């Protein structure tokens, strides 16, 4: 029988440098041993799990499934977690997503439970994470175990996987520190070098597993971790490009007897989410949705989408500290034209419907859409003819 390749994980161990503690694991890939780590402020040392290895296994899971490599763990993995991953998550993903393969996890098991009582959520200051935080910040009874007491910020790839990504991560971290302080919640920032195995992967296609592996390293501190969903629950599906669509299944499978993952945000549409957060002061100072800059540019698709949401609920002017509201009003027609042109994109159908219902879309906007389409066609034909000419000349040489 053909020997299937496998990745071998050693026992997690701690090391220290300056004011930081590292949770390390030596991993053998193609007979080469490399040390992977998560890095925390030293004060979190006592909460780090070295007794079992759920975190490193989960962080490598999409890599191993896509490369069709089995996992061997020399150290135990929690039995409940292993069962959920092996019996439910892996077979379902392998059956429904072409690029995923069915792989095996060979490891000893344990049934240790930890006594963490903390409740945490990731803080990015976008609409989804702001909604999750405000929905669960001192909104439940004191003994419910549902109120958030930590916010987390992970360098799990969302800022990119290159050297430059550290700059962006550190800049974002500074903003997030101020946001956590405003909320009166403790911030836990975690860096990792696991991003390095994913340099050839599209970040979006593996991001939830990488993010969820980090709370698993802190099971002695957390009993509940809220994961902010970008999609409504009725959009559940298996999608190769974005695992967020099947968050509901993932959260059940990656939870352990000590730590429950919970998806928040799928119960409301984007406009309903924006409406909810607009009642609070926090997003008026810290909402940050931009994909171009560290502060909101007011011109990229995420800024436009959010500004239109706020406009439709009559709250945009209250967000003038985080968006260029004057630009929106003076270029309102362009925002409407954008909404018509992108009405099929994610979250845009809802905005388009609201603009129609409000009769905000006029003849001049539809005319502008037709003119833009014509311009693009002419430009496309022009570029196409130049390309053909160049190809033709190349062929002659
Ligand atoms: Zn922007």
Explained architecture:
By secondary structure, the chain is of the alpha/beta class. It folds into 3 domains: 6-110, no CATH class; 118-264, Rossmann fold (3-Layer(aba) Sandwich), CATH 3.40.50; 289-361, no CATH class. Helices cover 43% and strands 17% of the residues. The protein is built from 13 helices and 13 strands. The protein has helices spanning 54-67, 79-96, 127-136, 164-183, 203-217, 247-254, 270-277, 282-286, 301-312, 325-330, 332-341, 348-357, 363-396; strands at 6-9, 13-17, 20-29, 32-41, 70-73, 77-78, 105-106, 109-110, 118-122, 150-154, 186-192, 222-228, 260-264. The strands form 2 sheets. Strands 1, 2, 3, 4, 5, 7, 9, 10, 11, 12 and 13 form an 11-stranded mixed β-sheet that branches. The chain has a two-stranded parallel ribbon with strand order 6-8. Helix 3 links the parallel strand 9 and strand 10. The longest helix is centred in the last third of the chain and has 34 residues, at 363-396. It is globular, with a radius of gyration of 24 Å. The model has no long low-confidence stretch (mean pLDDT 93). The protein binds zinc ion.
State the main characteristics.
397 residues; alpha/beta; Rossmann fold; 3 domains; two-stranded parallel ribbon; 13 helices; 17% strand; globular; binds zinc ion
């Amino acid at each position: 029988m053909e020997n299937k390749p496998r990745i071998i994980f050693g026992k997690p161990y701690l090391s220290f440098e300056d004011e930081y503690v590292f949770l390390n694991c030596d991993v053998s890939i193609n007979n080469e041993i490399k040390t992977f780590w998560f890095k925390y402020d030293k004060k979190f040392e006592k909460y780090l799990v070295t007794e079992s290895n759920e975190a490193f296994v989960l962080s490598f899971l999409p890599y191993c499934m896509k490369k069709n490599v089995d996992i061997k763990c020399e150290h135990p993995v929690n039995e409940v977690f292993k069962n959920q991953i092996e019996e439910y998550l892996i077979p379902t993903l392998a059956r429904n997503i072409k690029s995923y393969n069915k792989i095996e996890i060979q490891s000893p098991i344990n049934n240790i439970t930890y006594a963490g009582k903390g409740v945490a959520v990731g803080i990015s200051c976008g609409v989804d994470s702001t909604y999750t935080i405000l929905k669960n910040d001192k909104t439940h009874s004191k003994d419910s175990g549902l109120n958030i007491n930590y916010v987390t910020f992970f360098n799990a790839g969302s800022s990119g996987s290159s050297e430059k990504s550290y700059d962006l991560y550190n800049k974002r971290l500074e903003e997030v520190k101020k946001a956590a302080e405003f909320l009166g919640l403790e911030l836990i920032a975690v860096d990792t070098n696991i991003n390095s195995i994913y340099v050839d992967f599209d970040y979006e296609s593996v991001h939830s597993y990488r993010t969820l592996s980090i709370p698993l390293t802190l099971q002695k501190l957390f009993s509940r971790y809220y994961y902010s969903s970008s999609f409504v629950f009725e959009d559940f599906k298996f999608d190769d490009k974005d695992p967020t669509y099947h968050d509901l299944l993932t959260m059940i499978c990656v939870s352990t007897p000590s730590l429950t993952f919970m998806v928040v945000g799928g119960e409301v549409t984007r406009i309903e989410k924006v409406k909810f957060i607009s009642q609070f002061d926090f997003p008026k100072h810290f909402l940050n949705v931009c994909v171009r800059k560290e502060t909101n540019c007011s011109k990229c698709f995420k800024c436009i989408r959010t500004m239109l949401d706020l406009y439709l609920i009559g709250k945009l002017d209250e967000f003038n500290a985080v968006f260029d509201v004057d630009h929106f009003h003076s270029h309102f027609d362009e925002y409407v034209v954008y909404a018509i042109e992108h009405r099929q994109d994610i979250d845009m159908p809802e905005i388009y419907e609201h603009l129609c219902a409000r009769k905000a879309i006029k003849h001049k906007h539809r005319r502008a859409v037709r003119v833009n389409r014509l311009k693009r066609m002419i430009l496309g034909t022009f570029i196409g003819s130049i390309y053909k000419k160049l190809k033709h000349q190349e062929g002659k040489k």
